[in-house]
Amino acid sequence: MSKLLTQKNGMLVALLVAVIFPLVIDNQYYLHVFSLAFIWTIAVYGLNLIGGFTGQLSLAHAGFFAIGAYSVGVLTVKVGINFWLALVLACLITTFIGMLIGLIALRTKEHFFAIYTLCVGYIIYLIIYKWEAVTEGVRGLIGIPTPAPIGPITFETPRSLYYLILFFLVLVIFLIRRIINSLTGRTYIAIRNSEELAQTIGIPTMRHKLVSFVLSTFFAGLGGALYAAFIRFLGPDISYINVTFDMLTYLLVGGIGTLSGPLIGTLLVVWVSQYLQFLQDYRMLIFGPLLVILIIFYPRGIVGGFQMWSAKRKLKRAQKIIIDQQMKPLAVEEEK
């Protein structure tokens, strides 16, 4: 039974449920909420890579998400580029800007890095808000087209968009998993645990932190690009700092520094928020204390808490086996 409850099997079951869900429940509201949650999950995986595995808390993540979204919006609406080309260019633009910012930001450490990226995120928000000639400012950018057809496959219905976003989410999870299980991922974890020790053993920490930061901006830009195609309207609010804190909440609830934490945390918080919509502004009075309790008792989130519980259970089982093996010779001597 314990062999069946592995992270890989859990991911496969979740994927199977996600594929079957639209075929079983034909509810556009549910499809909309799930699609939106999948988009946020893609961005949260980027935040988890730089914050959870490399140990650098970036508070400009919503800004990079907005850069990806507005890049697609401007390129398709004002320049007239095909969506798929705009999607690729949006990811490249976000990654390039992330590299330029990372070269400066990563010269700072710990809370100074967080403060610097917080300022960067706010500057991105001001640029989007004030640069009306390109972003349309507070009026917002409207009329963003849906993804262009790929042969006979079109993306004009909620179900087709759902499957498109699900495809990119699965691709992102696959890439993140490959990165984390590689030598590069182990290097990120070493930097997170002790940057000074990593430097002592010869790891070029600045280069690895920059690559991790750039990859995180790439995933944020990809999420923003899909958001633009899904919502088809953009406003400056998507780049505001509260969006970054929302992503951070999803990550903390699910489990920072875990592979499945961003997915579980985002889906859980998004659905709980939807079910508490009837409380309007008072829903945070319920959700806030629940979040605080979760962080106190499960500082590594739901997935991290489950992993700790599983590790303790295996340790107790191993200790019991060792004790039994030590007691067997004594029992044999007593019988003699």
Automatic annotation (TrEMBL):
Location of the protein in the cell: Cell membrane
Major place of residence: membrane
Entry membrane topology: Multi-pass membrane protein
Domain of life: Bacteria
Transmembrane segments: 9-25, 31-50, 57-77, 83-106, 113-131, 161-180, 210-230, 250-272, 284-303
This protein's UniProt keywords: Cell membrane, Membrane, Transmembrane, Transmembrane helix
PANTHER family: HIGH-AFFINITY BRANCHED-CHAIN AMINO ACID TRANSPORT PROTEIN BRAE, HIGH-AFFINITY BRANCHED-CHAIN AMINO ACID TRANSPORT SYSTEM PERMEASE
Protein name: Branched-chain amino acid ABC transporter permease
Organism of origin: Cytobacillus spartinae
